[in-house]
Amino acid sequence: MAVSNKAKTPNLTGHHLLKTANDGTGSPLSAYSNIILVAGMITILTTLLIPLPTQILDMLLACSISLAIAVLIITLASKESLELSSFPSLLLFVTLFRLSLNVASTRLILMHGSAGQIILTFGNFVAGGSLVVGLVIFLILVIIQFIVITKGAERISEVSARFTLDAMPGKQMAIDADLNAGTITETEANERREKIVKESEFYGAMDGASKFIRGDAKAGLIIVMINLIGGIAMGYSKGMTIMQAIKTYSILSIGDGLVNQIPSIIISISSGFLVTKISSKNSVGQDLSKQFLRTSQPLLMASAIIAAMAFVPGLPKIPFLALAACSFFLGRKMAKSEKQLGGKPETASEQIKTDKQQPEELLDIDRISVNVGVRLISMVDPRKNSTIFERIGALRRKFAQQFGIIIPLVRLRDNIILEPTAYEIRLCDLPVATGKLEPDMLLAMDSGNVHAKISGVKTTEPVYGLPAMWITTANKETAELNGYTVIDPESVFITHLSETLKKHADELLTREDVQLLVERLRKIQPSLVGEVVGELVPIGLLQRVLRNLLASGIPIRELTTIIESLGEHASKTKNTVVLTEMVRKSLNRTITELYKDDAGKIMAITLDPVLEHQMASTLKQEGESLTLALPADMAMDLSKKVAQTWKTAMDKGREKIVLLCDSKLRAPLAVMLARTVPPLLVIAYDEIVLGTDVEPIETISIGTSELNAQQEQEFAGVTR
């Protein structure tokens, strides 16, 4: 199984459509949408309260029918349900509109015995001027809408809402997994999360909105009966006979019911199409044509069966023969197309398989990737309840919070070339760290308080290189009782990945990343960024300074302070090393808090003042940086003493240990000691906030012979 051998480009068509559909961009009426909505609601209220002339009622009834037809066409053309996420609100609006027209028409029917040309035409033409025919047709429409369409759409909406809510946690985990695996970007992940939320809201709203259609059907039936009974009573009170009143008001009542019921049933059909729509790149008509006209064989078989039905005694021959001919014609046309394409239609999956990778895609390099052996695939497989993706996501958030940088997406791949239990951390497709894990075992490390030895497979902890052993899960409790620290394989991997990224944090900061950080700060402090960043401090210079800070373990979250310090000193020098040291001084509070221990003290190794003075006299300028021109034996002796002191302190359980020195010596001394004692941090005296409790561990000094040798070296250099 391949976890992620290639970054897949997600299909964002649906997301894009969702976004454009929801934000209203591209619509010429978007600027007036609120005005139109308010005008519509005012029209509804006016229709409910104020008697309308028959001409205006005809216009509004025509608007109701036209709106229903437009909604149906738009629904059929949509590619997914969320393109019409506002449909529940639209459903409420059109239902209120129709009911207000019912009220207006009822008022005209009862008061004047006339309700406009449209209602009269529907009563005479559709119902044929017959009360019985009109009632039967009206009841049939109500039954179709109420029992068939509305009931089905309501059930689908209910089930969809329930399933959508139940699937939300799994979909969220899948998005996090894809994000941490690097198959999607942060923006795409947010779009997918937004789509999930909108899906739940949409189907939940449709579950409730379907009650509008159901209530509308009931209300239409009741209103017709009221119009009929009330109209007959009004006609009789005006001197009409019972038969005259029935003839007059039955046509108007049935026409009124049909005029309002037909738009209602069209809206119900639209609702049914919308909730049954499966997300696709195509509309309903396109999907039906592609799926039903996919192959020729079913069409040819259907034509033969339809033609045979024409010869059944008593059945008309012409309709069946005509339909059989049409089916045969379509089948032959599809057969010719299949023959031209190679004998069978190409499915979507086959088409994807035949796609060839473009040469330019081979130029893309993953900034961070992890290759795992075949036995570790289960650790990075989200289908096997792996939490590695969530933990990588938490690691990225931790980096943003602690260091002020957004580390790139981590791509996880299987690699059969590696050992089955090995993994490889790569930066820019080059390995920088390796390790081994036992996926079904636990790592036990000596915490220093081990009471008794336990059995296990000896190994080396990959992060710090400490001796450890792999034990079974059954021995976990025993190991913990005996003083061992027990860690699961995923935690070992995440810790190793975290420490590796910390070590190479400066390499991960690209110019594009710096530009994004600056643009984000520009929104908050536009004047600062506008004055400093650009001609005074180019992006390239800012990147080099930020990289220097990250290389020495200094967070860059205080970007405001950093830019302010650069703005103060960049006019005097463009030396990156000097500017970095100036920025470090402005970050003294951050540095102090960074290296304090739990007791609020800074445990420091110091240098003898005489030694510092002697070292300062050997400083030489080489390019942009200062270097210590110490004799080889003196440099080795100094490095050896510092390393021994640091190791002794670490063995005593002291974690945060720094080397304090003069600010002039900090940068060159850090470069020199990085070769022998990489973990030791070198800070200057003026990088510590005044009043901070500093506890010297040991003061490093060089003997008389070393000092004399150094003086002779300086003298020889002067005479030359």
Coarse morphology? elongated
Output the structural class.
alpha/beta
How confident is the prediction overall: mean pLDDT?
78
Q: Strand order, biggest sheet? A: 2-1-3-4
Q: How many separate structural domains?
A: 5
Strand content: 5-15%
Helix content: 55-70%
Number of strands: 14
User: What's the main sheet like?
Assistant: 4 strands, mixed
Task: Please give a structural write-up.
By secondary structure, the protein is α/β, with parallel strands linked by helices. It folds into five domains: 256 residues, no CATH class; 51 residues; 139 residues, FHIPEP family, domain 1 (Glutaredoxin, 3-Layer(aba) Sandwich), CATH 3.40.30.60; 78 residues, FHIPEP family, domain 3 (Helicase, Ruva Protein, domain 3, Orthogonal Bundle); 129 residues, Rossmann fold, CATH 3.40.50.12790. It is 61% helix and 10% strand. The protein has 26 helices and 14 strands. Strands 2-1-3-4 form a four-stranded mixed β-sheet, with helices on one face. A four-stranded antiparallel β-sheet has the order 6-7-5-8. It has a four-stranded parallel β-sheet with strand order 13-12-9-14. A hairpin with a 6-residue loop joins β6 and β7. α3 runs parallel beside α8, α6 runs antiparallel to α7 and α6 crosses α13. The chain is elongated, with a radius of gyration of 40 Å. The chain starts with 12 loop residues before the first helix and ends with a helix.
